[in-house]
Amino acid sequence: MNVNIHQSWKTYLQTEFDKSYFKDLTQFVTKQYQEATCFPPENQIFNAFETCHLDDLKVVIIGQDPYHNYDQANGLCFSVTDGVKHPPSLVNIFKEIETDLNISYPSSGNLERWAKQGVFLLNATLTVRAHEAGSHQKEGWETFTDAVIKTISDQKENVVFLLWGGFAKKKAKLIDAKKHHILTSGHPSPLSANRGYWFGNKHFSQTNSLLASDGLDLINW
């Protein structure tokens, strides 16, 4: 596994790369990609860090696992490659944006356009075996991504953290709420959304209001 990560991140995360758990994780992931089909493509594992540099970061969205079907995962949580059918959670995200901001539903589910505006789209686990959800959990990725969240909290100010669902909400303990904004809601998956825990959270308009109050450019969702 080639740790292809932008210098703005490397400055703070090099200490993680040098730790024994990360070396074990690298061996595990390398072996998995050699022996089985895994996602995202190996050159996109650290895509979130490449498309959103630490200096530019304004918003963080935390997912759990990459999509595990062909041609979906591209290294950004909830995002899919151009031309790919939108998974149910992403459909619900776009529906909420439609009603919250009166923006028409987009044709592309590729969220790189958000990442380039400073939205950091982080999955807690960065890799997965094909058709096996959660197959790379508890191998070290969570230790690394927790360190990433803590780094953002320590090094930045006025970041808007969007924590959707029980898993993401647990990450609040890594974030200094005195320095940052934390918005929580149910997960956009159909199971949660259809029970009334997602729609109407207005997280996208709220995020832009918070960015405006801190004198930062708004996100074009």
From TrEMBL:
It is found in: Cytoplasm. The active site is at D65 (proton acceptor). One of its GO terms (molecular function) is uracil DNA N-glycosylase activity. GO terms for cellular component: cytoplasm. GO terms for biological process: base-excision repair, AP site formation via deaminated base removal. It catalyses: Hydrolyzes single-stranded DNA or mismatched double-stranded DNA and polynucleotides, releasing free uracil. SUPFAM superfamilies: Uracil-DNA glycosylase-like. The keyword DNA repair applies. Residues 50-211 form the Uracil-DNA glycosylase-like domain. Its EC number is 3.2.2.27. Keywords: Cytoplasm, DNA damage, DNA repair, Hydrolase. Excises uracil residues from the DNA which can arise as a result of misincorporation of dUMP residues by DNA polymerase or due to deamination of cytosine. PANTHER family: URACIL-DNA GLYCOSYLASE. Belongs to the uracil-DNA glycosylase (UDG) superfamily. UNG family. This is Uracil-DNA glycosylase. It comes from Olleya namhaensis.
